[in-house]
Amino acid sequence: MMKDVLPALMNLEDWKRVKAPLAAIKKLSAQRKLKLLVVVFPTQFEVYPGYAFAEPRRTIHAMLNELAIPFVDLREAFSAGGGDALFPFRSDTSHPGREGYAIAARETAAALKRLGWLGAAR
User: Fold this and answer.
1) How far apart are CA 61 and CA 68, in angstroms?
2) Whole-angstrom Cα distance, residue 31 to residue 52?
3) Is 101 left (phi over 0), alpha (psi -120 to 50) or beta?
4) What is the mean pLDDT of each run of 10 residues along the chain (122 residues)?
5) Cis amide leading into 70 (omega within 30)
6) Assuming Cys at both sites, which of 47, 54, 84, 94 could form a disulfide with 79, CB separation 3.0 to 4.6 Å?
């Protein structure tokens, strides 16, 4: 499965096409006075020990930073929290199981707290 997914993930030109829609989402969020946080989930092979490819994460991070959109990248938390075992369905390298989503919830809540958005009355 990884051999089928990896070429698509490494196509940086496709990732660069995400920037305009992200900018539009940011604009719409601001117009509606909504807060925007992007959560970047890793694929299964990105949490394998020794995985060292910087792309496409570097491109995604650069876009989000350039657009001034706060984000949480879950790769390190997933790597430390169980890695490959967080993906129980071997035919699906993109969606973790419940433990992965629990990590995602915890990390997202921590980011919301750091941003001062958690529990704020509006």
Assistant:
1) 10
2) 39
3) alpha
4) 62 86 97 97 90 87 97 96 91 92 97 88 52
5) no
6) 47
